[in-house]
């Protein structure tokens, strides 16, 4: 319980506040502190028929015996469940900034993030394009390269590329990128997950992993040289394997993670196996950050139909990573 995890409540009009309230009743073996507007959380609890007691977080005080600790950060404008408002975009980013500040000062051991609405943040007219939590936190922490990995259903799937149009993916599958990202996956599996000798499986980009160059040469020209270099560094990475047969028990037996070439190659399989119970993990950061495997689901906000399973799993994973 002496490990404190900051949980940002995300888009206020979405299900972030709803699922954060579920932390009050969960046995998570760590101290969770929700960052958000305390009045909003109280209003949402009333909508859901919950009698959740909200406590003001005080870093030097012991955790309360029951209820939910809240680090109050006020909304910029009143919020209606189900109706995201760009005027609260800066509030959403302040939650992330405060969590990062708390980690840098040692106040928190790591952070878990409820979902944000990228479109709403960009509609607010920020000077720079906001492409997601991962990129934002990388910039905040001065991290040159981060890696998106989801875990659930007995799988860990990391990505060589993330939020790119499919037409742009092949150009990003380079030897240098594969080496850089595989090193990060290997290091974090070892250091944050406590796996002494991680084994990573690399999925090919093309159908049938290129079929000896007949269906594309990325496997031959980029992936195989990258694998040889990594194996020369004593990193246990194998492949490239055809993605359509890789996600089977006999292939995954003994593997600690799959490195997929692009977003919709690896994540549909993992989300089919664990949706609502998976965790999104950012590798490569100098701190622990996990998140949910779903979006803001504004249509469910305040209805009582939001499932907090993924948030609870994200907290459990973060706690284990902080412990390592």
Automatic annotation (TrEMBL):
Top enzyme class: oxidoreductase
Pathway: Cofactor biosynthesis; pyridoxine 5'-phosphate biosynthesis; pyridoxine 5'-phosphate from D-erythrose 4-phosphate: step 4/5
Assembly information from the UniProt record: Homodimer.
Other remarks in the entry: The active site is located at the dimer interface.
InterPro entries from the UniProt entry: PdxA, PdxA_fam
CC cofactor: Zn(2+); Mg(2+); Co(2+)
Catalysis: reaction(s): 4-(phosphooxy)-L-threonine + NAD(+) = 3-amino-2-oxopropyl phosphate + CO2 + NADH
Primary localization class, coarse: cytoplasm
Keywords: Cobalt, Cytoplasm, Magnesium, Metal-binding, NAD, NADP, Oxidoreductase, Pyridoxine biosynthesis, Zinc
Family, per entry: Belongs to the PdxA family.
Source organism per UniProt: Conchiformibius kuhniae
Name by which UniProt lists this protein: 4-hydroxythreonine-4-phosphate dehydrogenase
Pfam families per UniProt: PdxA
One cellular component term from this protein's GO annotations in UniProt: cytoplasm
Location within or outside the cell: Cytoplasm
Cofactor binding notes: Binds 1 divalent metal cation per subunit. Can use ions such as Zn(2+), Mg(2+) or Co(2+).
Keyword NADP: yes
Gene3D superfamilies: Isopropylmalate Dehydrogenase
Entry's EC annotation: 1.1.1.262
Gene Ontology BP terms: pyridoxal phosphate biosynthetic process; pyridoxine biosynthetic process
GO molecular-function terms, A-Z: 4-hydroxythreonine-4-phosphate dehydrogenase activity; cobalt ion binding; magnesium ion binding; zinc ion binding
UniProt-annotated binding residues for a divalent metal cation: 163, 208, 263
Function statement: Catalyzes the NAD(P)-dependent oxidation of 4-(phosphooxy)-L-threonine (HTP) into 2-amino-3-oxo-4-(phosphooxy)butyric acid which spontaneously decarboxylates to form 3-amino-2-oxopropyl phosphate (AHAP).
């Amino acid at each position: 319980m002496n490990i404190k995890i900051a949980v940002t409540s995300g888009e206020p009009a979405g299900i972030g506040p709803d699922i954060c309230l579920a932390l009050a009743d969960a046995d998570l073996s760590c101290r969770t502190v929700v960052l958000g507007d305390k009045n909003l959380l109280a209003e949402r609890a009333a909508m859901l028929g919950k009698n959740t007691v909200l406590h003001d977080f005080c870093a030097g005080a012991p955790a309360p015996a029951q209820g939910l600790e809240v680090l109050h950060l006020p909304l910029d404008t009143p919020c209606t469940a189900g109706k995201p408002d760009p005027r609260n975009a800066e509030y959403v980013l302040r939650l992330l900034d405060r969590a990062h500040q708390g980690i840098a000062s040692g106040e928190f051991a790591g952070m878990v993030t409820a979902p944000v609405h990228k479109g709403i943040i960009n509609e607010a007219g920020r000077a720079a394009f906001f492409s997601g939590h991962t990129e934002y936190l990388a910039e905040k922490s001065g991290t040159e390269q981060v890696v998106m990995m989801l875990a659930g259903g007995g799988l860990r799937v990391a990505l060589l590329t993330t939020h790119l149009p499919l037409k742009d993916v092949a150009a990003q599958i380079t030897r240098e990128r594969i080496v850089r990202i595989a090193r990060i996956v290997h290091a974090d599996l070892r250091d944050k997950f406590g796996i002494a000798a991680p084994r990573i499986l690399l999925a090919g980009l093309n159908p049938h992993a290129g079929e000896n160059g007949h269906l594309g040469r990325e496997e031959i020209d980029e992936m195989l040289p990258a694998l040889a270099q990594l194996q020369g560094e004593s990193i246990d990475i194998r492949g490239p394997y055809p993605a359509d047969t890789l996600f089977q028990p006999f292939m995954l037996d003994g593997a600690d993670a799959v490195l997929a070439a692009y977003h919709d190659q690896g994540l549909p399989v993992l989300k089919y196996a664990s949706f609502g119970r998976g965790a999104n993990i950012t590798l490569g950061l100098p701190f622990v950050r996990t998140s949910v495997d779903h979006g803001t689901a504004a249509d469910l906000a305040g209805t009582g139909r939001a499932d907090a399973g993924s948030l609870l799993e994200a907290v459990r994973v973060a706690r284990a990573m902080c412990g390592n």
